[in-house]
Design brief:
The complex is a heterodimer of chains A (446) and B (312). Chain A has helices spanning 5-11, 25-33, 47-57, 104-115, 140-153, 166-173, 191-201, 212-225, 239-255, 274-286, 299-312, 345-358, 374-379, 385-395, 416-422, 438-445; strands at residues 64-66, 73-75, 93-99, 119-121, 124-126, 130-134, 159-162, 182-186, 204-208, 230-233, 266-268, 291-294, 325-329, 338-342, 362-367, 405-408, 427-430. With 446 residues, chain A is α/β, with parallel strands linked by helices. An 8-stranded parallel beta sheet of chain A has the order 10-9-8-7-6-3-12-11. Chain A has a 5-stranded mixed beta sheet with strand order 13-15-14-16-17, sandwiched between helices. Chain A is globular. Chain B has helices at residues 62-65, 75-84, 107-120, 133-146, 162-171, 184-196, 217-233, 247-251, 270-288, 298-311; strands spanning 16-19, 25-28, 47-53, 91-94, 125-128, 153-157, 175-179, 204-207, 243-245, 290-295. In chain B, helix 2 runs parallel beside helix 3 (107-120) and helix 7 runs parallel beside helix 9 (270-288). The chains are: A alpha/beta (446), B alpha/beta (312). At the A-B interface, helix 8, helix 9, helix 10, helix 11 and helix 12 of A face helix 7, helix 9 and helix 10 of B.
C-alpha cells in the first residue's frame, strides 16, 4: 500500500536543504505521496529509504507487456476493485487458443481469423490481441513447427506459449525470442527449468498452481530465482471458481498490498457452447482478468466482447463522446428531417435509437459540446444559438438537403428564436423534451 | 508471505422477494456481492422472466420475432407458450398497446388482458405499462385491481406517477418496480418517496434503468454496483431492494441486433450476434447485481441460465 506523506517524511534526511526544489522535506514528502515528485530529486536520501520507498511506490499489480512492437499489450497496474472509483487501467487482452494437435488447415483458419479480427468502434481499433499456442500434442517437434509457422504468418501478434515441458518450451521459444512472448507453464514441478528458459529468451512467465496458497508460494519462489514478470493462474476454471479466485487476487493485491499475488491474471473461458463462452469471458472482462483465453474467433462473439471491454474500461469521470458530424439514420433523402443534439455518447445513442425506432429516415446533427448532455451543455454555454448556427453553416448540410428546417430538443425551446435570427432562411421547430417522444413526433411530420 | 483469503462480510443484506401465488419465484436475500457465496449467503438464483406483449411485436427484429410466430398474436397464447414450452419461471407482460402513440387501448381493456393471462398461467406475472408516465398511472391502477392478491410485480413507478401506482399496488398486495434514470441518488430518493407513503420497502424492486451493451451499459453497470455496495456496506435500507434489468427491450432495438450479415460482414452472423448481445448484456448485469431479468430470446435465456448454473 502506498505510504502517507508523514511516513515518507520519516525516511527523508530532514535537512530542508531545498536541493529537490521544495521548501522543506515535508513538502517534498507530500508531493512524493501524491506521486507528483520523484525520489531521484533528493541527492542525500539513504539507500535504505530508497529501497523502502521503491517497494511502496511500486504499483500493487505489476505492469507486464505481452509481445513487442505496435501490437504489444500492456497489462496490470490496476488500482481499484470497482470501475466507478477510478478508471480500470489496461484493458484485458483476448487470446485465442490454438492446439498444436489441430490440422495445419484448422490452425491457418484461426490465424486468419485473428489477423482479420480488427473492428473500428467509436474511434477505437479493437482486435483479438494474442494467440495462445497449446502443446496439446505433447510433441516438442510439432510444437516448435506450429509456433514457428504462426509466428511467420502473424509476425506482429503477441504469442503465449503453453506447455509445462521445458524441452518443448525451449524448442518453441528459440525461434521467437525477439517477440517478448509469455511462456505459460511454470508449475511446482518445473519452476527452475522454466525460469532459466524465460531468462534466456526474455519471456515473461505464466505461473500456475492449484489454489491461491500454492500460487503465492510459487510466485515467491520464482521471484527468488530471478524472474519477476509473471502472469498468474490459480487453476480456476468454472465461473464460480474464476469469480472467487479473481476477486481474492485483486483484493489481496490492492487492499492488502500482498505482493505474491500482485500480477496480472489469466482466465480461461473456452467452452463448447460459444454463447456460454461469451458469458464466461464477460465474467473475465468485468472481474479482473488481464488475459481472457477463448476457443474461437467468430466475428459476432468478438464484436460483443470487444464492445463489453470498451464499456467496462471507459473512464467513468470522462463522458464518452461521439464525433461531431451529421449522421444519417435510415436512408434519408434531401427532404428528410434534420434534428440536432449534443455529442454526449449516451445522448447520441438514445436519440439515434429512438429515431431508428421511428422508421423515419433522418439526419441527426451531433454537435461537439465536450461530451455534455443537452441541458448541461446549454447551461454551460456550449449549446447556444450562435454555436448551433455556426455548426449548421459550416457543416455543408445546406448543399445536401432541400428544406431549411431544424428540429431542436424540447429542453432548449428557448433557443428557437435566436437560432432563426442567426440562420437566415431557416425555420426552427421545437421537438420533444425526451427522446422517447421522437417516434411519435417524427411520424406525425412524415 | 502466507496467503490469507481477504474475505469481506457486510452488515447489510438485500431484501428477499417472493412473487406469485401458485408456482412462486424467490430472488434476493444475499448478504454479499453478486455470487460471492465464498464469503456469505446467496440463497437464491436470479430469476429470468420472459417478455410478452399485448400486441403483435412487429417492431422486434426478425431473429427474436420469428421465435414467437404463431403465438404472438394473442398474449394468452404467447404467455402459455413461454410457460409450457420454454419453461419460463415468470412472465413479464408489457401492455404496450395502451401507449397513446400505439393503439391507445383503455385501462379496462388492459385489465381484461391481465385477467385472461393470469387465468391461463400459474407462474408469477410481472405487469408492465407502456412507459408513458400519464397513461401508466391509470393503466397500472386498473391492472393492479384486476390482479388483486395475485402477488404480481407492477411496474414501473417513476417520479412523475409513483403516487397513484404505489397506492394501487399497496391496496392490491403487489410488489412494485421503482424506476429512475441512471442515478443512484434519484433511485434512493424515489424509494424514499414511495416508502413514505406507507409502502413496504421490502416489496420494492429497484430499476436503475437498463441499457444495452455498447449503448450506455457501463452507466447501468456502475449505478448498480454503487447501489449494491450502499446496501451492503452502509446497511442502507432504501438501497436494499433487489434490482431489475429490463434487458430485452433495450437490446432488440439497436443496430447490432438488426443489421444483416450482408450489410455488415465484419460483424458476423446476425442470428448469433443478436442472441449473444442479449445474453452478454444480461450476464454483465448479473455481475453488477441484478436479481431479476426480463429477456426475449429463448436461446439467450438458456445461455444465461447455464452461466448462472456455473456461478452458483
Amino acid at each position: 500500500m502506498a505510504l502517507t506523506g508523514v511516513e515518507i517524511f520519516k525516511l527523508l534526511p530532514k535537512t530542508n536543504c531545498k536541493k529537490c526544489g521544495h521548501p522543506t522535506c515535508l513538502a517534498f514528502a507530500m508531493k512524493l505521496a501524491q506521486r507528483q515528485a520523484s525520489l531521484d530529486a533528493c541527492p542525500d536520501v539513504s539507500e535504505e529509504a530508497k529501497r523502502i520507498l521503491g517497494e511502496a511506490s511500486a504499483p500493487p499489480i505489476r505492469p507486464i507487456t505481452l509481445g513487442a512492437g505496435d501490437k504489444a499489450v500492456k497489462m496490470g497496474e490496476e488500482t481499484v476493485l470497482f470501475r466507478h472509483e477510478k478508471k480500470f487501467v489496461n484493458p484485458c487482452a483476448f487470446a485465442v487458443e490454438i492446439k498444436d494437435s489441430m490440422s495445419d488447415d484448422e490452425i491457418n483458419k484461426i490465424v486468419d481469423g485473428v489477423l482479420n479480427s480488427e473492428i473500428d468502434r467509436v474511434g477505437q481499433k479493437l482486435r483479438i490481441d494474442a494467440i495462445f499456442v497449446n502443446n496439446a500434442s505433447n510433441d516438442a517437434g510439432r510444437f516448435e513447427g506450429v509456433v514457428k509457422a504462426i509466428a511467420s504468418k502473424a509476425p506482429a501478434v503477441p504469442l503465449i506459449i503453453a506447455t509445462n515441458n521445458p524441452a518443448a518450451a525451449e524448442a518453441a521459444l528459440k525461434n521467437i525470442a525477439d517477440k517478448k512472448p509469455l511462456l505459460y507453464g511454470a508449475d511446482e514441478s518445473n519452476a527452475e527449468a522454466m525460469v532459466n528458459i524465460a531468462k534466456t529468451y526474455k519471456a515473461s512467465l505464466g505461473v500456475t498452481a492449484k489454489g491461491l496458497d500454492a500460487l503465492s508460494a510459487l510466485t515467491e519462489k520464482i521471484k527468488g530465482l530471478g524472474v519477476e514478470d509473471m502472469v498468474i493462474d490459480s487453476g480456476a476454471r468454472t465461473a464460480k471458481e474464476i469469480l472467487e479466485a479473481n476477486t481474492f487476487i485483486r483484493r489481496a493485491a490492492i487492499k492488502k498490498n500482498f505482493k505474491a499475488l500482485g500480477y496480472p491474471v489469466i482466465t480461461f473461458a473456452q467452452r463448447d457452447d460459444k454463447i456460454l463462452e461469451s458469458l464466461v469471458a464477460t465474467l473475465g472482462v468485468t472481474k479482473y482478468a488481464s488475459i481472457v483465453v477463448l476457443s474461437s474467433v467468430e466475428k459476432w462473439k468478438n464484436l460483443a466482447l470487444f464492445t463489453l471491454r470498451q464499456n467496462i474500461y471507459t473512464d467513468p469521470q470522462v463522458p464518452m463522446q461521439v464525433e461531431q458530424k451529421i449522421y444519417k439514420i435510415g436512408e434519408p433523402t434531401p427532404e428528410s428531417p434534420l434534428a440536432i443534439t449534443t455529442n454526449f455518447s449516451l445522448t447520441y445513442f438514445i436519440v439515434s435509437g429512438e429515431i431508428e425506432n421511428s422508421k423515419v429516415p433522418c439526419r441527426l446533427a451531433v454537435m461537439d459540446c465536450e461530451g455534455l448532455s443537452v441541458l448541461t451543455a446549454w447551461a454551460a454555454g456550449k449549446f447556444t444559438a450562435s454555436k448551433i448556427a455556426q455548426f449548421i453553416q459550416e457543416s455543408g448540410i445546406e448543399n445536401e438537403i432541400k428544406h431549411r428546417e431544424l428540429i431542436i430538443p424540447g429542453y432548449v425551446a428557448i433557443l428557437s428564436g435566436a437560432i432563426e435570427d442567426k440562420l437566415p432562411g431557416w425555420k426552427v421547430t421545437v421537438g420533444p423534451r425526451e427522446a422517447n417522444g421522437l417516434p411519435a413526433f417524427l411520424r406525425s411530420k412524415a | 508471505m502466507a496467503f490469507a483469503a481477504p474475505k469481506e462480510t457486510f452488515s447489510g443484506k438485500v431484501f428477499e422477494v417472493t412473487i406469485g401465488t401458485d408456482k412462486t419465484a424467490v430472488f434476493g436475500g444475499e448478504n454479499v456481492l453478486p455470487f460471492h457465496a465464498f464469503e456469505g449467503s446467496v440463497p437464491h438464483r436470479p430469476v429470468i422472466a420472459y417478455e410478452v406483449q399485448d400486441i403483435v411485436p412487429d417492431d422486434w427484429p426478425e431473429t427474436v420475432r420469428k421465435v414467437y410466430e404463431g403465438v404472438s398474436g394473442d398474449p394468452v397464447t404467447w404467455a402459455k407458450y413461454c410457460q409450457d414450452t420454454l419453461n419460463a419461471k415468470a412472465i413479464a407482460l408489457r401492455l404496450l398497446s395502451t401507449h397513446p402513440d400505439r393503439e391507445n387501448r383503455s385501462p379496462e381493456e388492459a385489465a381484461k388482458t391481465v385477467k385472461d393471462v393470469l387465468a391461463a398461467i400459474n407462474v408469477p406475472l410481472i405487469i408492465l405499462g407502456s412507459n408513458h408516465v400519464e397513461k401508466d398511472s391509470s393503466v397500472l391502477v386498473a391492472v393492479s385491481e384486476a390482479a388483486k392478491d395475485k402477488n404480481c410485480i407492477i411496474g414501473k413507478a417513476q417520479e412523475g406517477n409513483y403516487k397513484t401506482i404505489a397506492a394501487a399496488a399497496m391496496a392490491n398486495n403487489h410488489r412494485l418496480i421503482a424506476m429512475s434514470e441512471l442515478d443512484i441518488n434519484l433511485s434512493k430518493q424515489l424509494n424514499i418517496l414511495i416508502t413514505q407513503m406507507g409502502f413496504d420497502k421490502e416489496k420494492l424492486i429497484t430499476d436503475p434503468m437498463c441499457s444495452a451493451l455498447g449503448y450506455g451499459l457501463e452507466y447501468t453497470y456502475s449505478v448498480m454496483e454503487r447501489i449494491r455496495l450502499a446496501a451492503l456496506t452502509q446497511n442502507d435500507a432504501t438501497m436494499q431492494p433487489p434490482m431489475l434489468a429490463d434487458v430485452g427491450m433495450y437490446v432488440w432495438k439497436i443496430k447490432e441486433t438488426q443489421a444483416s450479415d450482408a450489410e455488415l460482414p465484419l460483424w458476423g452472423s446476425l442470428q448469433e450476434r443478436g442472441i449473444t448481445w442479449e445474453a452478454t448484456t444480461a450476464a454483465s448485469f448479473l455481475m453488477s447485481g441484478a436479481e431479476l431479468l426480463i429477456m426475449r430470446h429463448p436461446e439467450a435465456v438458456k445461455a444465461v441460465e447455464k452461466f448462472i448454473d456455473e456461478l452458483m
